[in-house]
């Protein structure tokens, strides 16, 4: 069983606000899922390379050049921003 | 025949022969949608005006005597995690409730080049995380075969829409079974293409090494048509590939039943499976045998590890992908707090539903300091073993047949309270995503009134072959 502190720590890493009620629920649910996942510990993986990508492929390169049509796209993207100022994204103070 | 019961080919022929206009076809579907979707709730957004004006455009082309592409004017639906420019794209989450897509996904761009006709956007489990479409922030979709049951998920809206004749075909996405399982539950055809066969540009990312977009259709032929239209390499998705598809093409005409070697993995017929489902699947396999295919038992010995492996890899990738929803760049923003950290915490608390939060937590845990090797790296190594199993099996056989899901469609609320029970309904589908293989779900019988799907798994980039194998049973 993972501890309440661990749940809080993970939530903080994930930048996820939690309610009190959720804290206990996550503790229970995550423990159950992690317990199920423990099955993998029984598998012999010695000498096995990890797979991050199922289909073999090579690096894809392209020229580092400007693409057209960016202006209209930028306008649409900026319209989606919750708060802007002078064409910049506005955020709350960090310090 | 009713306009709303046609296949793509039939509808295309009707348009070309001027038996009906694209406008009439579109109106017929919109009318049916308006009436039927009240009980099914497959759609989150209906784009009536743009659909009707698109229909007029296609009619003009026909009147001018121009040749029209096969998908021109054919009413379709798009899963609401795939962007259609200027149309709301919610990913069934409160966090994107008011998000207007600023561009077209590559698959949508390709369909638009064929003058497709989009009726609207379909419901899904929030961020495609789920197997019942009950995790949608905007309510559950219901199974057209039995309204008290789920349509499966996460592409439940797309599958229900096709099954209820609310559209002619739909696009879904499949990360661990999200096209195949709802196709199975709704008695229609679903194709999960090889990883990389279809561009993911404009698909809202869940688990990037597993996600693929694919067609959900009424027939195998229709699946082939839609797959042809959306596949191909794309410079906007560097994991998509073009060249390999050409190299690996297996023309359907070359698939002869008497030359087919079909594998049946013994690990897929285990306790916990509904015996009625098992019976239907075994009968389908027997039909292939009777038609002359050679059936061989194969072993995929790491099958049991696939689900735990998936539930490390998928949530890990999801936790990274979903970091972008921060209340700053787009989407829901909760800015009442005092500083930037509060904006993050509150926006993500308000915006994400329970299953999404659970997976973000799980993924963050698996990737956090001290646990990475024990969980994520280990899972990636097990992934290699799962892939090796398939490579070995495919040395002996052309395709592998399995059930899609251990049960037919279950009741609403039956599994939603226990995440692990819900996860188990993907037990037969996740391996395919981990190995990057193509697979289809094909209706092959019923348990009571509920459809059961047969899964046909193929070698990488052999979509045409598994579709051809599917067509053999469909027409038998």
Summarize the structure.
The complex is a heterodimer of chains A (95) and B (476). Chain A is mostly helical. Chain A has helices at 4-13, 20-37, 70-79; strands spanning 84-85, 88-89.
Query: Number of DSSP helices of chain A?
Result: 3
The gross shape of chain A turns out to be: flat
CATH structural fold name of chain B: Amidase signature (AS) enzymes
Category from helices, strands and their pairing of chain B: alpha/beta
Largest interface in this structure? A-B, 52 and 71 residues
Estimated helix fraction of chain B:
40-55%
Unreliable spans of chain B:
none
Number of domains of chain B: 1
The major sheet of chain B is characterized as: 11 strands, mixed
Looking across the biggest beta sheet of chain B, what order are the strands in?
A: 1-3-2-4-6-5-10-11-9-7-8
Q: Give the CATH level 1 class of the domain at 4-42 in chain A.
A: Mainly Alpha
Beta-strand segment tally of chain A: 2
Coarse morphology of chain B = globular
Which value, in Å, is the CA radius of gyration of chain A? 23 Å
Average pLDDT for all residues of chain B: 95
Order of helices and strands of chain B: HHEHEHEHEHEEHHEHEHHHHEHHEEH
Order of helices and strands of chain A: HHHEE
InterPro entries (chain A): Asp/Glu-ADT_sf_sub_c, GatC
Keywords (chain A): ATP-binding, Ligase, Nucleotide-binding, Protein biosynthesis, Transferase
Catalytic activity (chain A): L-glutamyl-tRNA(Gln) + L-glutamine + ATP + H2O = L-glutaminyl-tRNA(Gln) + L-glutamate + ADP + phosphate + H(+); L-aspartyl-tRNA(Asn) + L-glutamine + ATP + H2O = L-asparaginyl-tRNA(Asn) + L-glutamate + ADP + phosphate + 2 H(+)
Pfam families (chain A): GatC
